[in-house]
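BUG: 3D viewer hangs when loading the predicted structure for this chain

Environment: internal workstation, default settings.
Expected: structure renders.
Actual: progress bar stalls at 90%.

Input used:
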Amino acid sequence: MLDRIDWANSFPAAVRESSFKVIAAALETIHRPTSDEELKKAKHTMAFFDQVLFQMGVLKRRENVSGFLTLPDSVTSPPADSPYPLPFRLTGGQKQALGEISADLQPGIDKPPMNRLLQGDVGSGKTLVAFLAMIQFAIELSPGSQCVFMAPTEILARQHLQSFSRFFPQFAHLAVIITGSIKATQRRQANDAVAGGEALFIFGTHALFQEQTKFKSLAFCIIDEQQRFGVNHRRQLFNKGINPHQLLLSATPIPRTLSLTIFGDMDTSIINELPPGRQPVSTIINSSFREALPFIEATLHQKNQVYIVCPLIEASENKDWTSVEEAAERVSDLLPQASWACLTGNQSWDEKERIMLEFKAGRLDMVIATTVVEVGVDNPRATLMLIENANCFGLSQLHQLRGRVGRGTDASTCILVSHAAGDSERLAVLASTCDGFELSLEDLKMRGPGDLVGTRQSGLSHPCFSHRIPQKLVENARIRAFEILTTETTEIRDWFYEQMVKSFGESYKTFMEGG
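Structure tokens produced before the viewer hung:
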């Protein structure tokens, strides 16, 4: 087969006579190896080559977004503190993240818009950092510009608005919310305030990028739990403004190796510490609800509250999983004195809000829910999370659910109920650590990089994801890709660019557009 390859055209002289000749040699060796060791080295070379091509695509996409061909995270920024009074001090991680974001938002000639990912474990205070960045931008740096804060659920969007108004009451009159369920009159008033520019801080859900929502001067987009939104959703929101700054928030930590690939075109900030007073959540594995019953009784005796999370709303003939319905019957039988309510995605917003307000006010002992409580629900008095059929959830989702407790100063516990003995190793990993970044590494080991690409792109296929190479080599590939694009001769650069386009195949155009 190799005899039929046109080597002169496949590898021009400029490539074959440079340090890149090892690529041609590796390709030939893979087809005609003389030893196992030689074959191993050749495969390693081709894996690095695939990663270089992918990193070139990532850098070109970054250039498409910002107008500048630069390496992400090439500038170190000093930390910044809140200029507004808060009931607590920012952590060192929050200050550093705020400083990096503030530097991106500073106006400047030919300065690209911010394109940053803010990662932080559950409860690390990402949202407050985003609030401070919004206020700095709309009030100080670009007065009158509008900031949008999009969340994946209405519960979370409303909670963000409430938190913003509580922390910064002086700016509450400039904030509105737009969701799919708000009443027509309220929706019309909010849309008018956004279109007229009276509202500078706009909170909401998917309704924000609907056609009827028109902004006067959208210049800063914040997307919370970014992995829950599709690429097209984000693009529709960004298109409401003119090249706006973008800040993506994620409480699902991404291993460094993957962040260099699927988020390689973005600058990254990390908050790697929790606020003072927070205690790690103790995690245990039980085989049944009855085994967990003493923990529930002890929690209620201490006047604290409980979440019970189930994978189904109603019982299913196809799956032997506990439903919210069944859990409610069980609680009624075994804990007749407890007050509780069910919370699912099928309920109206008014009903869900009523239940969460009653729970937060302490009028309910328990909420029996689906994963609708996975993100954003904040009740410091809830100290026990029980997850039925924990084996049917991913590690990241379990970690998110666990994050609903431990939000106060009291010791908290998460109980993973699983009847699947074969899944004990995976759940034991979760029980062994509360560090989301460590869990993400374990998730990567168990699932492989290809399965995790969906955190940003759905269905993206590239040869680089078929190899497992160390983080250092991914970093080296990024640097090498940048050197090829900026310092190599035109002939070599053009050849690599052509190979890069081919490596993406049919997904190249979508990838370059942010997909």
